[in-house]
Specification:
2 domains, elongated, 11 strands, Nucleoside Triphosphate Pyrophosphohydrolase, 4-stranded mixed beta sheet, 38% strand, single chain, alpha/beta
């Protein structure tokens, strides 16, 4: 299945007809994305299932109806096993940003983490997962973020990229993470949970 978050509520594109989450179930081919998004934003709906018999074909059909913006990001771990977080728009987040023309996904992810956090000595270990969420900026967009596990032994001062609205950059230990997860996005929890399973 694939999850796309709309204001932290999931649209689940699935080939399973089992409704284990009690979200309304619609046929993907019969849905209008604007109506689904309207329901998630304005109605008392916690999520929506979109059924398609062929998951990959259905998923391509679904994302082709969006203006897709691709981004790269990193879950950075230091030698103490602490995780690098940024504080932006009053929410704890992981560093990420748009892939520029001619840039590889990996290079974009490293560049964005360096720019947003003022960090160096990054090593890209492996891909973690890809997340999806919608947002409005000159119309409805679907952000597709490719996340990578990174390590760094950086000992200098972390510097938030203020022009990007980032006010704090900090490595968080396990106790700090539990607190941060009370004020973060569902996608970020998904990235961290996937990392833990690795």
């Amino acid at each position: 299945m694939y999850k796309v978050f709309v204001n932290d509520k999931p649209i689940i594109v699935t080939s399973s007809q089992k409704n284990e989450n009690n979200f309304p179930l619609y046929l993907l081919k019969n849905t209008v994305k604007e109506e689904i998004i309207y329901k998630l934003i304005n109605e008392n709906v916690d999520g929506i299932n979109l059924y398609t018999p062929d998951l990959e074909v259905g998923w391509q059909f679904f994302i082709n109806s969006f203006d897709v913006i691709s981004a790269g990001g990193g879950l950075v771990v230091n030698p103490k096993k602490e995780v690098l977080f940024i504080f932006r728009n009053s929410v704890w987040d992981l560093p990420k940003g748009r892939i520029e023309k001619g840039e590889t996904i990996q290079n974009a992810a490293i560049r964005e983490v360096e720019e947003e956090c003022g960090i160096a000595n990054l090593s890209l270990v492996k891909p973690i997962t890809t997340t999806y969420h919608t947002y409005y900026q000159d119309g409805l967009k679907l952000k597709e973020t490719f996340w990578f596990l990174m390590t760094s032994d950086f000992k200098g001062t972390l510097t938030p990229q203020l022009e990007e609205g980032i006010t704090q950059v900090v490595f968080k230990n396990e106790a700090d993470l539990k607190e941060a997860f009370k004020n973060t996005y569902e996608n970020i929890k998904l990235v961290y949970d996937t990392y833990l399973k690795m």
